[in-house]
Amino acid sequence: MRIALYGFMGAGKSSLGQKLAKQIGYDFKDLDALIETYTGKTINDIFSSEGEIAFRRIEHLVLKNFIRENQENVVLALGGGSILQPTNRKLLELKNFYKIYINVDIYVLTERLKKNKNNRPLLKDLKESEFDDYIKALFESRRNIYEKHADLNFKVGHESFERTLERLYNYLNVN
Ligand code: S3P
Fold first, then answer.
1. At 103, is the pLDDT very low, low, confident or very high (cuts 50, 70, 90)?
2. Gap between the terminal Cα atoms of the chain
């Protein structure tokens, strides 16, 4: 089985993915980390030196390379914007990835991201007064696509990380 976790920035895709993979004995890959290895640059550097359009091109290329490896039994955490590109969705579908939307409440996301914006190029330069509105608008612009392409729409409420992981594990029932 191949599993892709996606959702908004700050949803916990990487932390959940890493733990989940360990629990079910799968490999874990993080698309942003693969991009950083491939380019030798941080995501912030790619955005600032080449811009978002170039980043999306690289993101697609790195995903394509990964898909070509044809790895099975893998949990892949995508970046928050990866699933928006139809060409990326096609790649995932080609290998029958089970796509899980990590669906976290916008208020929870906003609070998390306020504390953790420096390594996120779309957020790091926002003023405090702009932050909430920006997140809300970006989330709203993505929400339908996030929901539409989910094989599993996994809602995360106010619960501990351990509880979320346990629920996700139980849903999947991989073993
Ligand atoms: C992005 C999310 C980031 C990263 C890039 C763009 C987005 O990943 O890919 O900064 O467009 O939402 P995370 O969701 O892991 O922060």
1. very high
2. 11
